[in-house]
Design goal:
The protein is of the alpha/beta class. Helices cover 39% and strands 14% of the residues. The relative contact order is 0.17.
Length: 323
């Protein structure tokens, strides 16, 4: 049966709102409050962060703290690659969403010849670059990092020389060049995008299952269609940002957006998707307990984490019985 390893990434340097670094500990508090022993069941590794640089003056307006982001991508890449090489199934619990680029780099470092599909459950497309970002916050850039895209066709900024030097290095974390094709990305519940991101979504034919389409078809049908769209990929990575849920359920995250998933829909998506044997890494990001009362966001997220892990273990039991 699959051995789970928890990778704890308490980094928030790429977020625009402080507090996401506390998300992992908020999940642990929720676990204790619910009387669960989840965090005692699995090996865990905490990836060292560089959050102290937030006390320094940011030198990169179009890619805030990009020097530290590069360090974090490299560290998360190595931790993910080591876990996979050790035959673990990594469950990554992270602060801001930028470090998901490091997770993807770690998968490709371990399996450079395998085509990797990405299922991105999020309110945002996270396709910005230093050339297009309206905020400079790099948690809006991870998919551009791993696809090595600048999107200069939609340029609105003039990034400095040093910013571009770091940006080029980010494209080559783990191994040189793109790690994914953007045509191998499927969005679920993305609903807050800017024009440069829409341009890339159209250019590369990225399918986005909107909340309206999800309601029309139902979660199970959308999961089936998602897996069909990525059937040509040999491996799949699932990234779950809690802001994919409607803002009335996700107050405790940095960028809540209305008209999102219900808690049940979010849980159903993750528990059904992880049953696909191609899914090799699952990640949860952006729980921010400083924006919430009574730790409610983390309690909701923990329920989804526990249910998704159980679904993974049941997947492997079924596979063993089939053999």
């Amino acid at each position: 049966m699959e051995q789970v390893k928890l990778l704890e990434v308490k980094s928030e340097i790429a977020a625009g709102t402080r507090g996401a670094s506390l998300g992992v500990d908020a999940l642990k508090t929720a676990c204790l409050d619910k009387g669960s022993d989840y965090f005692a069941l699995y090996d865990a590794e905490e990836v060292e962060n560089v959050n102290d640089i937030l006390f320094d003056t940011n030198k990169f307006p179009h890619a805030k703290f990009i020097d530290g982001v590069l360090v974090m991508e490299e560290r998360v890449c190595e931790a993910t690659a080591e876990a996979l090489a050790g035959k673990y199934f990594p469950i990554v619990l992270a602060g801001d969403h930028s470090t998901s680029a490091g997770t993807i780099c770690g998968i490709k470092k371990t399996y450079p010849d395998k085509r990797l599909g990405v299922i991105w459950i999020d309110a945002h497309a996270d396709l910005h670059t230093p050339f297009t970002t309206p905020s400079g916050n790099m948690h809006g850039m991870p998919l551009a990092m791993v696809s090595a895209i600048d999107n200069q066709a939609c340029q609105v900024n003039q990034p400095g020389v040093e910013t571009l030097m770091y940006w080029e290095k980010l494209k080559h974390v783990g191994l040189p060049g793109p790690k994914i094709y953007l045509s191998d990305v499927v969005f679920i519940a993305v609903r807050d995008t800017e024009e440069p991101e829409k341009h890339l979504m159209e250019q590369y034919g990225i399918k986005n299952f909107s909340p309206a389409e999800i309601r029309e078809k139902g979660v199970k049908k959308v999961v089936e269609e998602t897996c069909f769209l990525l059937d040509h990929c040999e491996m799949i990575y699932v990234s779950f940002d809690v802001d994919s849920m409607d803002s009335k359920y996700s107050e405790g995250t940095g960028t809540p957006v209305a008209d999102g998933l219900t808690v049940q829909e979010a849980s159903d998506f993750n528990t059904l998707l992880i049953k696909n044997k191609k899914v090799c890494v699952w990640e949860m990001v952006e729980v921010n307990p400083t924006l919430d009362t009574l730790n409610s966001m983390a309690e909701t997220a923990f329920d989804i984490l526990e249910a998704t892990t159980q679904a993974l273990l049941e997947r492997d039991i079924r596979l063993e019985k089939a053999v």
